[in-house]
Specification:
This protein is of the alpha+beta class. The protein contains 13 helices and 20 strands.
Length: about 550
């Protein structure tokens, strides 16, 4: 069929990255359609921590089995189960000996509705790590390429942080840093007193907690309150909820995308939407799934598969949570807030400039002391400060860690599901072991005593759930940290990457893949801010192309 393009851009996904793409493109004058596979969540009663209801959560845990993977993540219990997908409708497969825990949010706003909002920048030590150790590729971009976009997003979201001048953790466009708690100040003094290279900082993040009881339907953690709101305010953006992208459509020559085929998840009707450009922002694994599903006679193996890299090099951060109490730090039952900005951050301090450790790359820590809001009567160590440290270790890009389409299993809409084969490998384990060793040493140095979470507090009703979570986070399986990246990596040459430095698919340059799928390496930092900056940069590039190219008609070819 021959049809005129209806939209300048179709954006797939309405979460952190899709909403940035929509905002940047709409504010530059382009018409944007956002496709969201899930529904709109109406009413502020659906949002956030005060919506948590223990009775409802326990009922879901013990009487239903529709979210077995989702309920392994702590945020499931502290926000709202509706922010997480139905595992029975949305299955995936793994090898029997390599479990992967895929945590997903499918609704307008995506996973921003359950996001903690910790937002450190990448440094050149992450972008150019391969110059030091020759493992994997360098990024074809660096901090200077993203700096203006980092600053734009930080100002929009309201990121708090302290200016430190650290080479390993670039400063940003910050609001004033939030204060450390008294226990964190003690921890900082004792750790930095011995290890000058280790810096205990106020976390860099967003100061927002969801309070629907105060009439707040959305907070600055959510796309609806920031990026998505700005996109909609232009009058040039529309959101189509319950619309799952099935494949990317091509023009007659197969070298440009012409739009997207979708299925309405309520009516099960299929539709085609036509556009001059497509932004793929569905979250890492879903985005790779879409590219793999978009193969035809001209694109065997999927869109972007010609290099052999599509689907390969999947990564996630390995995480360990360590809980402790500090006998000599008094705590009279007051609990300080635990937020993206109200917590502590210890940035990477290993292998900076030279390879000095017995492992490659590095790790950092996020945590809090006196921020675990357990009622005083539940505490076993009354009057003593409780704390935790979460070590997050870089995972390296391994070709064998990959996503394919399962030839037999389909989701509730008849679409092939991802088969995820990902495991921690030797170098990943070395990094994680070193992180845990340093974690325990710092806790001991600060006067802390390590203890299992279940032993810190009396929780007889939910003890089984807590024990399961504790075992998961002794060494998290791939996926559980929800920092998955890779699978459609960025590069300087089309023979070893899927997208170019502006995130354009080499085989179809009007298709942009800007979420975590385009990452060549994982770094140790939380990925969301960097993903948003990458998306903003790609959108600026796309806007310049759209502004100089004429609207035209195209032959939309049936799939062969």
């Amino acid at each position: 069929m021959k049809a005129r393009y209806v939209w300048d851009v179709v954006v797939i996904g309405s979460g952190a990255n899709g909403s940035v793409a929509a905002m940047e493109l709409a504010e530059r004058g382009h018409s944007v359609l956002v496709l969201e596979a899930g529904p709109e969540r109406p009413g502020f009663g659906d949002y956030g921590r005060p919506a948590f209801n223990l009775a409802r959560q326990l009922q879901r845990h013990y009487l239903t089995h529709r979210q077995e993977s989702q309920k392994r993540h702590p945020t499931y219990w502290t926000t709202n189960p509706n922010f997480f997908i139905d595992d029975l409708q949305n299955p995936y497969t793994t090898p029997g000996d390599a479990p992967f825990c895929w945590i997903r949010g499918r609704q307008v706003g995506g996973r921003t509705l359950a996001w903690d909002g910790v937002t450190p920048r990448f440094s050149e030590h992450e972008f150019k790590a391969a110059r030091l150790d020759s493992f994997g590729p360098e990024w074809p971009i660096g901090h200077a390429d993203l700096a203006p976009h980092y600053s734009e997003i930080e100002r929009l979201l309201g990121v708090h942080g302290s200016t430190e001048g650290l080479d390993a953790l670039p400063d940003g466009a910050f609001l004033a840093p939030r204060p450390l708690s008294p226990g964190e100040l003690v921890f900082k003094q004792r750790v930095e007193g011995k290890h000058r290279e280790r810096r205990v900082l106020p976390s860099r993040g967003i100061r927002a907690s969801r309070r629907p009881d105060k009439g707040e339907r959305h907070t600055r953690l959510s796309a609806q309150a920031t990026t998505l709101a700005r996109a909609l305010d232009t009058g040039r953006t529309q959101i189509r909820a319950n619309s799952m992208a099935l494949r990317i459509l091509y023009g007659a020559d197969g070298k440009q995308a012409s739009g997207v085929e979708l299925i309405d998840t309520v009516t099960r009707e299929k539709h085609a939407v036509l556009a001059r450009s497509v932004f793929v922002c569905g979250s890492t694994i879903e985005s790779v799934r879409l590219l793999l599903s978009s193969g035809d006679s001209q694109h065997p193996g999927g869109l972007g598969a010609s290099s052999g890299a599509l689907g390969h090099y999947l990564m996630d951060h390995q995480a360990t949570n360590t809980y402790f109490y500090m006998p000599d730090v008094p705590d009279h039952g007051k609990s300080y807030e635990l937020l993206g900005s109200d917590s502590l951050l210890i940035p990477r301090y290993q292998n900076l400039g030279s390879q000095t450790q017995g492992h490659l790359r590095g790790f950092g820590f996020w945590g809090g002391i006196q921020r675990m809001a357990f009622p005083h009567l539940m505490r076993r160590h009354k009057g003593m400060a409780l704390g935790f440290l979460c070590a997050r270790s870089e995972a390296l890009p391994h070709y064998e860690n990959r996503i394919t389409l399962d030839p037999e299993v389909k989701d509730a809409w008849g679409h092939p599901v991802p088969h995820i084969a990902c495991r921690w490998r030797g170098e990943d384990l070395k990094i994680a072991d070193a992180a845990q060793q340093d974690c325990l040493e710092m806790i001991e140095l600060a006067g802390g005593r390590v203890e299992n979470l279940i032993d810190l507090v009396h929780m007889p009703v939910v003890g089984g759930i807590v024990r399961k979570m504790q075992s998961d986070w002794l060494r998290s399986p791939p996926g559980l940290f929800v920092h998955e990246v890779g699978g459609a990596r960025m590069g300087s040459r089309p023979d070893d990457s899927v997208v170019n430095p502006f995130c354009q698919v080499w085989e179809a340059p009007n298709v942009f893949v800007t979420d975590g799928a385009c990452w060549p390496t994982s770094g140790w930092q939380n990925p969301t801010l960097t993903e948003m900056a990458i998306t903003a940069r790609a959108a600026l590039h796309a806007s310049r192309i759209l502004a100089t190219s004429a609207r035209f008609e195209a032959d939309v070819q049936p799939r062969s």
